[in-house]
Specification:
By secondary structure, the chain is mainly alpha-helical. Helix 4 packs across helix 5 and helix 10 crosses helix 11. It is globular. The protein starts with 9 loop residues before the first helix and ends in a 10-residue tail after the last helix.
């Protein structure tokens, strides 16, 4: 089903993902019929288009530099993309619209670039594990700086690896501390197994059932919420127990 029935460049794929996500009327999210007090649908579309060039050719060039003659690690192209994309996001929207998206897409885009040529799901999955294994202390420092620049809300504070404090030696280890209730962080710990094993098959099934990308995205969100609660809401409000005997 269009646009999933053809290949796209990484930059164009990022643009498509951001626009489709923003257009789908998902629960609790900004979309054409719902706004937050500080951001509207237009902010998400504009900043989604703005961040895409950060995923383009510099990422591919860095990934092909297997000898590391430039002195930068393979992982550093991930943190470089995160930092550049956050800057573009802030310039376009003036607020945090896509930090989670950027953190999710940067390793996947780097993995796709490292595959060289036509990307297949099995090779992408193997490649993203290598990308995450290559992240080092410099990557952690740059990603922490980018998160600070994005100014995400609802994170609270932590005794260790707090994003407002000094960056840890290992970005993956820091993500592991919040992985239980933060789905984005968990992908850095489990090599995106939620994406490959759950979300991708669920999206494919929703596309077959609905015949509409926007409807499929909404179905995917509902299925994920049934799988686990929304991380931001849990951070802000905690879990509210429900007694089904009263329903």
């Amino acid at each position: 089903m269009y646009p999933f029935n053809r290949s796209w460049s990484v930059e164009n794929a990022v643009q498509l993902a951001c626009v489709l996500e923003a257009c789908a009327p998902k629960l609790g999210n900004v979309h054409p019929g719902a706004s937050f007090s500080d951001v509207r649908f237009e902010h998400f579309v504009a900043s989604g288009l703005a961040i895409a060039p950060s995923f383009a050719s510099p990422l591919t060039e860095a990934s092909h530099n297997s000898s590391r003659a430039s002195g930068s690690s393979v992982g550093s192209s991930v943190c470089g993309v995160v930092g550049a994309a956050v800057q573009r996001m802030r310039a376009a929207a003036g607020s945090n619209t896509h930090l989670g998206t950027i953190l999710l897409l940067a390793p996947l885009a780097q993995a796709a670039a490292r595959c060289r040529g036509k990307v297949r799901l099995c090779s992408l999955r193997d490649s993203v594990g290598g990308v995450l294994d290559s992240l080092d202390a410099d990557d952690a420092a740059e990603v922490y700086a980018a998160i600070g620049q994005a100014k995400p809300g609802g994170l609270g504070t932590r005794e260790s690896a707090d994003v407002r404090g000094a960056a840890p030696e290992s970005l993956v280890a820091a993500m592991a501390q919040v992985a239980e209730h933060d789905g984005v962080a968990r992908q850095y710990v489990n090599a995106f197994s939620d994406v490959f094993d759950l979300l991708l098959p669920w999206l494919e099934a929703a596309l077959r059932n609905s015949g509409s990308p926007a409807e499929a995205i909404c179905q995917l969100q509902l299925r994920w919420l049934a799988h686990e609660p929304d991380g931001l809401i849990v951070r802000k409000c905690g879990l509210i127990p429900v007694s089904y005997t009263h329903l």
